[in-house]
Design goal:
This protein has about 325 residues and is α/β, with parallel strands linked by helices. It has helices spanning about 5-25, 35-40, 45-55, 80-95, 100-105, 115-125, 130-135, 190-205, 225-230, 235-240, 260-270, 280-300, 310-320; strands spanning about 150-155, 165-175, 180-185, 210-215, 245-250. Helix 5 (about 100-105) crosses helix 6 (about 115-125).
Amino acid sequence: MNHSTIRAVTSKWVTILEEYEKVKQGQSPLFTTVNELCEAYHVHRKDIRKYYERWIKADKDRSALLPQKRGPKAGKYKLLSKEEERIILKVHRHLGANEFEIFHLLKNRFRIHPSVSTIYRTFKRYPLNKVRKEHIIRYVKRYPGELLHADTYQLAKAMMQERRRYHLFGIVDDYSRLAYAEVIVANNAAEVTKAFFHSLQFFLAHGIHPYRVMTDNGVEFTAFTSQKAKQTHFFETMLKIVGIGHTYTRPYHPQTNGKIERFWQIVDRECIFHLNLGQTMKTLSDEVNSFLYRYNYERRHGSLNYTTPLNRLQFVTELLK
């Protein structure tokens, strides 16, 4: 940065600081107090004091008034990678562990073992909004089948051998988190209804009798053009035949159906991400079925106190015997 640029950037603060010195010495012809100076230039007195101390330490060099780089100084702290920070935050939020407990839990797990201070600074860098957390209403239904969450997920064309657009239909039980997913060739009412029938067989085989399903307002699930169109919609008609209620999410608010949205994130990270390009529908279906086996019967879920959906379901079954 050349001298003319530095002069242009710092000219305002040099004028303010020179006037500030005169006010402190009682020699200013324009202002009698610092508050009058602050009101005239629309600045805060703390900012004036900060820049003044920086200016005096640099022997009134204009370059000291330039914006400084934010963040920790290079070499002062051992910085963690983003993945290491995510691990620390996950342990902190799910297990409620403090920085001293995490320090011992992470022994020999990172390339450079973080200090207690480094872990504490990570908490401060990504704080939990406690005020907002108190207002979040988290709900879990009282018994299996009380509410199912259904949705569709679009797959990339490059994944498939014929470069055709395929979708996944997914449905999750609110209470047990037991999930079913199926590859469908199109995101329309006929394909979704057929996949839903298959999911009913899956849930009934596990002893779950669905009472209500929650979906978004997509055309594959309902119609809002008229009451007649809604009553004659393929998916709506099927729900009436099998005696299952239908609940709709708030428009443009995916958090209402958050459990199935979270399910898609897990599918994307633990199944879709590891697949090779050029899949056939059969190989893709086999991979999805393998993932569902791990998800329902082997994977431990933090939302279920680190038990599997099958264990959660068996716990209720044993109570009802």
